[in-house]
Design brief:
This protein has a domain at 24-73. α2 (26-37) packs antiparallel against α3. It has 4 helices and no strands. By secondary structure, the protein is an all-alpha fold.
Length: 75
């Protein structure tokens, strides 16, 4: 079974919406959301320890995005 064709005008609307979206790096987006919500604080250490590194957010984002600390440390 083949996919249905896009309706007429789809390309124009798609391009207009894409042009309105800001260009942002994925790690930067994660760090921005964390700054507003603190969601990374909800991730406990497997040992149950409450001690946390000061730069834990940067470390988690660097590892989860597989980019290393250099790109995220520029914040």
């Amino acid at each position: 079974m083949e996919a249905a064709a896009h309706p007429e005008g789809f390309a124009a609307v798609h391009d207009a919406v894409a042009a309105m979206l800001p260009r942002i790096d994925y790690p930067e987006l994660i760090l921005e959301v964390n700054a507003r919500t603190g969601f990374l604080d909800a991730m406990p250490h497997i040992s149950g320890s409450l001690a946390r590194r000061d730069d834990l957010d940067l470390s988690l984002v660097a590892r989860s995005c597989n980019i290393g600390l250099t790109p995220v440390a520029k914040r």
